[in-house]
Description:
Blueprint: H1 7-40, H2 48-75, E1 77-78, H3 88-92, H4 122-137, H5 150-161, E2 167-170, H6 182-188, E3 191-194, E4 197-198, E5 203-204, H7 206-215, E6 219-224, H8 235-241, E7 247-251, H9 256-260, E8 274-278, E9 289-293, H10 301-312, H11 321-356, E10 372-378, H12 380-393, E11 396-397, E12 399-402, E13 410-415, H13 417-421, H14 426-440, H15 446-457, H16 476-485
Parallel strand pairs: 1-11, 2-3, 2-6, 6-7, 7-8
Antiparallel strand pairs: 4-5, 8-9, 10-13, 12-13
Helix pairs in contact: 4-11, 5-10, 11-14, 14-15
Amino acid sequence: MRVAEKDDDIDLADEAARAAAAEAEGIVEDAAGIVGDAAQESGAALGPDWSDDRVAHLLERLASDFVLDNTYREQHLSLTASENYPSKLVRMLGSGLQGGFYEFAPPYPAEAGEWAFPDSGANASLVGKLTGIGRQLFEAATFDWRPNGGSVAEQAVLLGACGRGDGFVHFAHKDGGHFALESLAAAAGVNTYHLPMVDRTLLIDVDRLATLCAEHPEIKLVILDQSFKLRWQPLAQIRAALPEGVFLAYDASHDGALIAGGALPQPTLLGADAVHGNTHKTIAGPQKAYIAFRDADHPKLRAVSDWVCPQMQSNSHAELIAPMYVALSEIALYGHDYARQIIANAQTLAHALHEEGVRVSGESFGFTETHQVHIVTGSAADALRLSLGDLARAGIRTTNIEVPGANGLHGLRLGVQAMTRRGLREAEMREVARLVAKVVLRRAEPAAVRAEVADLLQHHDLDRLAYSFDSYVDSPAAARLLGEVFR
Length: 487
């Protein structure tokens, strides 16, 4: 990209960087003052006046950051496809003492060793609850809760399924493939191949995939790791086309709640050896991930699991077991309606944008089958300028992508899951489409659109999220639970 093409983007980035740098300098000066005061009073007890004044100042500085962020979240249309609003219990339960201690708990029987720690028994109980609901929601025999993110999960699958000289197949970046695998594969001596696609339909060409695997017998893994995802892929046909022994993995980071809620098929029932993904996109949980195997005796189970922990990470953040359990419990109780409302909202948004004159990808198949909607705008610079410039100033939060099937053109990836949690339905999605079109097509003044965004959101606050346990936060049972968490 030439410098001349991105001057506006540089200005945006520079402005934010300068503000952050100024804030950081103030924080560093405060910290230096604390250290200096503490050094001067070395050997003497800190007086209550010093302690109260300095700590109060720091806490006020921290509070101002949370005020800034909470106000931003309340007043913005969050149309990013990769984020969500976790409920209050999900957020609060992450404050347990478990986070200061190790928890190994592999998803296979293991003898005690150096990674076994004495424990109260609570972690084992929490893990049992979490793995039980995870297996149920994803029709799996195992559920490894330990990956600290979706990248760790898919990298563990790659390293556990492939060795040096082997090959794996996944989506090319232009087709929505994830960024976390190719550099690792190259470093590990694993050959990378890309799934053959039909651009018009955005579906995998199964016959060409079968030919690819036949021509390259070193292929040991096919991983469907699509991040720019509008369609359900023909998983049963893919499984049938693969040679025996090729590991088939499905990345459900984006559509996990749609699968668990029954709006999309279960990968494990259609031949996937494992389903994996993170828990903060359509699933509104903490920043964690999982790997679930169809077969508890799968020959790759232990290899994949051991790559997660202890080889790629030594601490799996046990304080997030309970938040994961609550997030999956919300799916278990409300997921059927939540998943269907997500798809209805996405389809409504896509059709309304199309009617407004916006170029929406996927017209031949009804635009979308998931939570995502892709808008084609033109060059990478144009898409970036919209997402970080006019749309951001209009109170509309989204990201830019190279749109799959659009011959190298770029655009915007919208997601409706977060706003579905805020209670927006089809009528509001048509209004969202009108506001997006005003910025993208009609070049309306962002400040004026921002006022309309605020007006739309004033009746959809973050205090009581839909499809969540937020209405139970003030119940006696929740009070007892939170009393123990914060004890």
